[in-house]
Amino acid sequence: MSESLLVVEGLVKRFPIRAGIFHRQVGEVKAVESVSFDIKSSEIFGLVGESGSGKSTVGKTLLRIYKPTKGTIQFKGRDVTKLTKETLRFFRQQAQMVFQDPKSSLNPRRSIKSTIEESLIVHKVAKNGGARKKIVADRLAMVELSPNYMYKYPSMLSGGQRQRVAIARALALDPSFIVLDEPTSALDVSVQAKVIRLLQRLQAERQMAYLFISHDLSLMRTIASRTAVMYLGRIYELAATEDLFTNPLHPYTKTLISAVPVVSAEERQMKPKKQSYGGEIPSPINPPSGCAFHPRCSLAEQVCAQELPDLAEVLPGHFVRCHIAIDALSAT
Predict the structure, then answer these.
(1) Where are the domains of the chain?
(2) Could you tell me the pTM of the whole model?
(3) Residues lower than pLDDT 70 in the chain
């Protein structure tokens, strides 16, 4: 595979909790804790986990929507965390985001043309209004919408059409990297497949890299080449997507895969046995000690509550953060 386009090392994002008349900090939300991974050029990298695991925060922090608390984000060899508002311009042109809900991410008072051409104006890409109009029409054609849609408003479109407009907006500056934050979860099932096929086609044609964020593991198996599993702000397993499904190592990953619907007896036999007690994900304000998953893990031992395991490469390209899984593989 090609060299890394994006390299994330030790990324931390914490949000302060303030209270009282003087708004003093009384705590913090540990949304992302020491996350490290890389994304190759032209790769679709998946990030999965339950709601509250920190997936979306990772995506927004990578694009500097949120300022990182600690860590580095290398994009094409440059540390994005050290860029100022002025020097961030090159990064903004190369990295874009498609949000989960197109109804809330598109300004209802702006026409589709105005929405897509805004970034062209800010970055001074086109010389005049005619050139911008041509680019807008081209981007709408890329997402399989007629150029006539540029004169419409978001309220006049269906959910799937609005998301296509959001994708066209992300493509306006011809980026090399796009963060897709659950881009199909707000859409009808019948529309989801069409949008996924569109995203796959655009990625193949334009050789872009995606960070694809989702809670849907079955979707990740279809679209991502590698997948990282997040839990309470940390990555607990990372591997080639097919390896993750055929040989999951962390009890949390096995629990997620065991919940994926199947349609045949053969698939049912291949599913791993559920290895958790269930329950809700703990609060990131006061996470459990040791391995954060241990209160929900049926295999947890005393060491799991006391020590946080490292994310270790136990098989080629397969990383896991689990005392039990690491010990079991070391014994073989």
Answers:
(1) 251-332
(2) 0.92
(3) 1-2, 261-278, 332
Reported for 116-122, long-range contacts at CB under 8 A and 24+ positions apart, including other chains, are 116/140, 116/150, 116/165, 116/168, 116/169, 116/172, 117/172, 118/169, 119/169, 119/172, 119/173, 120/172, 120/173
The phi, psi pair for 181, rounded to 5°, reads -95, 90
Yes or no: say if 225 and 301 are a contact pair by the CB < 8 Å rule. no
Helix (H, G, I), strand (E, B) or coil at 286: coil
Per-residue pLDDT, 302: 94
CA-based max dimension of the chain: 68
How far is C-alpha 64 from the chain's CA centre?
14
* Of 99, 98, 100, 61, residue with least CA distance to 81: 61
Three-state DSSP class for residue 283 = coil
Return the beta strands (E) in 68-150 as ranges: 70-75, 78-79, 95-98
Residue 228 near residue 216, CB atoms below 8 Å: no
pLDDT digits (tens, 9 = 90+) for 36-50: 999 999 999 999 999
| Strand duo 234-240 + 24-40: pairing | unpaired
